[in-house]
Amino acid sequence: KNFHLQSHTCVLCSQQQLETRNHIFFHCQFARMCWGYICLMFKSQNSVHDNIMVIKQEHKLPFHMGITMLVSWSIWKTRNDCIFNGITPSIYGCKRIFKDELNLVFHRAKRKDYNGFKAWIDKFR
Ligand SMILES: [Zn+2]
């Protein structure tokens, strides 16, 4: 509250776009590269719901929503690291955040979901 941002322009790309939810998480070229990491066929759709459906349909995993949230969190954390800590955004850094968070989620995974989850995250280690 009462924190004045100097700009409302996306810091993750050089497109001088207004930082809207749809831009920062799905339409930004940075976000699209991040989604491409886990979803090779990702093409950003107009609505948040349609973007989530594309990811769900590619993965067909019971934990697709968790993965979607982790990628979104990684993009958001990369954005905040840039604005508040002066860390230059990079795809490598965003992937590192994603992998670290994925490992934390994995340790909390329920045993019945363990095998499918382990096989999936082993692709990203
Ligand atoms: Zn952007």
Give a verbal description of the structure.
The chain has 125 residues and is an all-alpha fold. It has one domain. Helices cover 62% and strands 0% of the residues. Helix 4 crosses helix 5 and helix 5 runs antiparallel to helix 6. The radius of gyration is 15 Å and the shape is globular. It starts with 20 loop residues before the first helix and ends with a helix. Zinc ion binds next to loops.
Tertiary shape: globular
Strand content: under 5%
Helix content: 55-70%
Number of domains: 1
Number of helical stretches of at least 4 residues: 6
Q: Helix and strand string, N-terminal first?
A: HHHHHH
Using only C-alpha atoms, the radius of gyration works out to 15 Å
Quaternary organization: single chain
> Strand count, sense and closure of the main sheet?
none
Bound molecules: zinc ion
How many angstroms does the end-to-end distance come to?
38 Å
Structural class: mainly alpha
Mean pLDDT: 86
Beta-strand segment tally: 0
Low-confidence stretches are none
